[in-house]
């Protein structure tokens, strides 16, 4: 597709009352659009020259998706193999390590490396630690030969438990390096120890966010949790403050595979949100934050009747289990109280004994220990754990012990389950801005002690894992084969991205359901997609092909637009001819695409894709792994489009050829090839950013094709497309003149006079056009980067109406207007009488997205609350984890807590995560 970038195109002012046909002829004549676009015949001629060697091949969507899935299976398999090797090494190292309480050992502390004291000497546990910027690790300064250790500030750097753990895990350093050498696409590798430290490879400094979610998911199975909190009068003051913090801390440990509810009790039982009465909701971030907000509003009153609340909690958990929903694994009640005077034995005999399917964890709040034995008895007789929390500082350490208890069955059975996290956005992994926003998933695995003396106790040594950016997976599926590639749309909380929020279907969730179930098949769907921050909408009919990625919880789907998406040009071009044209100064290729795998060897990391292709084709780097099909397509495209440079140069040499305000000519192809020709220097261009590296919207990127490309492929064949990027219209002349004015408008989504929507300039004309049926208004539900549902208003041109004119009654005057479609374009010409003000009779019509507010005349607030309630309770079909470890006969249920028994354990590592995050946020 070939395009011209015009600087004078945007604004035309008509001084006389020409009829639309005359204006159209004048427009086409003055701007010589037909003449300027004769380049299409140049392209056609060149294609005719190579026609004998050209093939048009049909794209088999099912074959493609299966191939991509197999490639991804192999790639993810290598990541899992690396993690397994880490786990085996750590377990073997522990087997031969004997604990030494007097061990003296120096290590590289991530917060101290390369730090000098006042005398210019390296501080203890610091030392010289070489760091080099590495392209593969987002240009962070790292050491690919050595890992580092981070110890939270709340733990002594040389505590015997820390030193023994660090010394034992030294064996991992060699494995980290070996893994990276064998698979240079690996990113961060880590080992998190329950004693509180994290070993990270490659070594670097200034960590601010540790793998909290990965650690919990790898160490425990899914769970149903009901938090029961005492809200009686005795809980006033500091006790309630501690209780609220305890609830929030528990909520922070939950994830997408967990389910939760919160009940408060006085002399009656009260659900924190009545909407969730008698059920559990998924512990996603939205629901967790919702509960935290409600917890903040808790008030104390009355007398505490805990027995009723515990009965209610058992009722809900039994109901969940019987109706087969929730996590279908662990179940637990978390009782938060300052005392329990009632007799609970009858309750437990009725609901939980003898199987004890529901664990009960108890948290005694406050310094008073009068009822400590009662509260501890509840936990110890229901396979739970008791903790006494007397201050806010005790909350983190004591609350988290429940995770250690839930991990016992997995640890005792030595079930090395590999877990994959849901896609999440890692935004602040490092304190440097070098880490870009990117979606990723993590693969992790628990590490157990194999010492014979520990087998029956179930000792968790820690968790090993690595992160996999989703862009690494996307590179395995070449965008040129299926138009726009995989679409990723981050949510505000960056915690997950649901397929239903990526593709806005006009039908039900058939595609999502099929992919979640892990089936293989194809569907045709009508979908809507927005461009330009919701201002433009495209209605498409796409074919979707999907299958599962074996040995992982993932499914893969690709989309082919019906029609042009199913065919591709191929042709044999000599390497010499293609390479000559590819290295021309006016040519660039999509650097985010994978023409050659520069990640496969550290020596190639600094190469751009164009450099890598050139090195491969010239034989300088014969070992480079390149996509032969994509290279073949690229060479074909660059040779066929080569005559455009001479044609554009001829226009430049002809002075009259650039009088029309042409700034840039460019051509883009499906292979990610982009040719550009600048007619004026950067200082004279209106669109200074257009087609520069910072203009991601208009370039071929990993996530999408350029906006102008996507518009053009949906444009009727033979028609010209006119598109104005946002910056082009800054500082443009006013659209409406004192006389009669007209503006070119994009018909598929009315827009574009000075980048201002016609309805905002003149609501009366837009209202009249809607009434006359020349445009159709549609609302598109969606969301943008804010935590609310929004709707976009789009106005779709009805092509059956080619021209019309009318008058608008505006009190003392009549406003005349004429509208006509400009042939072979996506433009409409609108002529409006500008000296008749209708602003009092007609309000403006805006395209700005707005928060969805559902109107219900009788009780608006109640109705909106009901809609929100149903949305939060709704549970889309989901793929559950394959394994569940909720019980083991060798579990020692007598290890159920108590202030005298508290020890440094799993909780220290988890506590460090919160302390680190809080400290960095404050910083």
From TrEMBL:
It is a single-pass type I membrane protein. It comes from Electrophorus electricus (Electric eel). It comes from the Eukaryota. Residues 224-406 form the VWFA domain. It is found in: Membrane. The keyword Signal applies. This is VWFA domain-containing protein. SUPFAM superfamilies: vWA-like. The gene is cacna2d4a. GO terms for cellular component: voltage-gated calcium channel complex. Belongs to the calcium channel subunit alpha-2/delta family. Keywords: Calcium, Calcium channel, Calcium transport, Disulfide bond, Glycoprotein, Ion channel, Ion transport, Membrane, Metal-binding, Signal, Transmembrane, Transmembrane helix, Transport, Voltage-gated channel. The keyword Glycoprotein applies. Gene3D superfamilies: von Willebrand factor, type A domain (3.40.50.410). InterPro entries: Ca_channel_alpha-2/delta, VDCC_a2/dsu, VWA_N, VWF_A, vWFA_dom_sf. GO terms for molecular function: metal ion binding; voltage-gated calcium channel activity. Its main location: membrane. Pfam families: VGCC_alpha2, VWA_3, VWA_N.
């Amino acid at each position: 597709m070939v395009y011209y970038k015009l600087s004078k195109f945007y604004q035309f002012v008509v001084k006389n009352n020409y009829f639309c046909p005359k204006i159209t002829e004048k427009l086409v004549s003055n701007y010589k659009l037909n003449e300027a676009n004769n380049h299409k015949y140049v392209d056609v001629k060149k294609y005719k020259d190579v026609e004998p060697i050209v093939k048009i091949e049909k794209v088999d969507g099912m074959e493609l998706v299966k191939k991509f899935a197999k490639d991804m299976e192999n790639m993810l398999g290598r990541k899992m193999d690396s993690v397994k090797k880490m786990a085996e090494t750590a377990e073997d190292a522990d087997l031969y390590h004997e604990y030494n309480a007097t061990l003296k050992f120096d290590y590289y502390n991530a917060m101290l490396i390369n730090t000098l004291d006042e005398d210019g000497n390296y501080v203890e546990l610091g030392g010289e630690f070489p760091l080099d910027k590495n392209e593969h690790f987002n240009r962070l300064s790292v050491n690919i030969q050595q890992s580092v250790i981070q110890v939270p500030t709340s733990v002594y750097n040389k505590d015997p438990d820390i030193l023994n753990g660090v010394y034992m895990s030294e064996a991992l350093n060699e494995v980290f390096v070996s893994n990276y050498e064998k698979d240079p696409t690996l990113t961060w590798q880590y080992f998190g120890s329950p004693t509180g430290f994290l070993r990270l490879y490659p070594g670097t400094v200034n960590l601010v966010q540790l793998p909290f979610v990965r650690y919990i998911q790898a160490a425990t199975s899914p769970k149903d949790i009901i938090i029961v909190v005492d809200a009686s009068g005795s809980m006033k003051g500091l006790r309630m403050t501690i209780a609220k913090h305890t609830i929030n801390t528990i909520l922070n440990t939950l994830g997408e595979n967990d389910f939760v509810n919160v009940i408060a009790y006085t002399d009656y039982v009260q659900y924190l949100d009545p909407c969730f009465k008698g059920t559990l909701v998924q512990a996603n971030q939205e629901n967790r934050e919702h509960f935290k907000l409600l917890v903040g509003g808790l008030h104390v009153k009355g007398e505490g009747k805990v027995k009723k609340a515990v009965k209610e909690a058992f009722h809900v958990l039994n109901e969940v289990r019987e109706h087969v929903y929730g996590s279908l694994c662990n179940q637990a009640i978390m009782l938060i109280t300052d005392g329990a005077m009632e007799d609970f034995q009858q309750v437990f005999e009725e609901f939980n004994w003898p199987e004890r399917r529901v664990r009960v964890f108890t948290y005694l709040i406050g310094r008073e220990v009068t009822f400590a034995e009662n509260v501890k008895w509840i936990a110890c007789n229901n396979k739970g754990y008791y903790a006494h929390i007397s201050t806010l500082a005790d909350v983190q350490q004591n609350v988290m012990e429940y995770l250690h208890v839930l991990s016992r069955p997995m640890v005792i059975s030595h079930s090395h389950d590999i877990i994959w996290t849901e896609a999440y956005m890692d935004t602040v992994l490092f304190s440097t801005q070098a880490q870009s926003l990117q979606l990723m998933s993590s693969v992790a695995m628990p590490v157990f002690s194999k010492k014979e003396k520990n087998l029956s106790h179930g000792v968790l040594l820690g968790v090993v894992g690595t992160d996999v950016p989703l862009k690494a997976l996307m590179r395995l599926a070449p965008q040129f084969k299926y138009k726009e590639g995989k679409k990723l749309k981050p949510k505000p909380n960056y915690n997950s991205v649901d397929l239903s929020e990526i593709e806005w279907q006009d039908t039900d969730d058939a595609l999502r359901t099929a992919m979640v179930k892990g089936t293989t098949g194809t569907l045709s769907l009508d979908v809507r997609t927005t461009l330009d921050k919701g201002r433009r909408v495209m209605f498409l009919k796409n074919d979707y092909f999907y299958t599962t990625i074996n040995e992982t919880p993932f499914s893969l789907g690709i989309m082919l637009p019906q029609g042009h998406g199913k065919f591709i040009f191929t042709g044999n071009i000599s390497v010499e001819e293609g390479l000559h044209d590819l290295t021309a100064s006016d040519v660039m290729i999509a650097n985010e695409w994978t023409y050659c795998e520069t990640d496969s060897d550290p020596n190639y990391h600094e190469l751009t894709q164009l450099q890598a292709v050139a090195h491969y084709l010239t034989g300088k780097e014969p070992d480079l792994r390149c996509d032969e099909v994509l290279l073949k397509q690229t060479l074909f495209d660059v040779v066929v489009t080569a005559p455009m440079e001479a044609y554009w140069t001829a226009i430049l040499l002809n002075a009259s050829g650039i009088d029309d305000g042409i700034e840039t000519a460019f051509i883009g192809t499906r292979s990610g090839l982009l040719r550009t020709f600048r007619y004026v220097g950067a200082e004279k261009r209106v669109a200074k950013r257009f087609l520069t590296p910072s203009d991601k919207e208009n370039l071929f990127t990993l996530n999408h094709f350029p906006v102008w490309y996507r518009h053009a492929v949906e444009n009727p064949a033979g028609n010209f497309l006119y598109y104005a990027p946002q910056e082009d219209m800054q500082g443009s002349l006013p659209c409406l003149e004192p006389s009669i004015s007209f503006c070119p408008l994009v018909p598929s989504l009315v827009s574009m006079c000075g980048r201002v929507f016609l309805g905002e300039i003149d609501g009366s004309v837009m209202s009249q056009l809607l009434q006359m049926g020349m445009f159709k208004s549609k609302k598109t539900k969606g969301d943008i980067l804010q935590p609310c549902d929004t709707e976009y208003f789009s106005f779709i041109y009805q092509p059956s109406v080619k021209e019309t004119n009318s008058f608008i009654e505006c009190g003392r005057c009549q406003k005349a207007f004429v509208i006509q479609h400009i042939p072979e374009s996506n433009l409409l010409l609108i002529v409006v009488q500008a000296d008749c003000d209708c602003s009092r009779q007609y309000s403006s019509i805006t395209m700005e997205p707005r928060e969805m507010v559902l109107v219900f005349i009788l009780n608006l607030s109640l109705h909106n609350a009901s809609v929100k309630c149903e949305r939060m309770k709704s549970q889309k079909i989901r793929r559950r984890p394959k394994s569940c470890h909720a019980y083991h006969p060798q579990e020692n249920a007598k290890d159920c807590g108590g202030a005298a028994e508290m020890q440094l354990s799993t909780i220290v590592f988890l506590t460090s995560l919160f302390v680190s995050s809080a400290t960095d946020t404050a910083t």
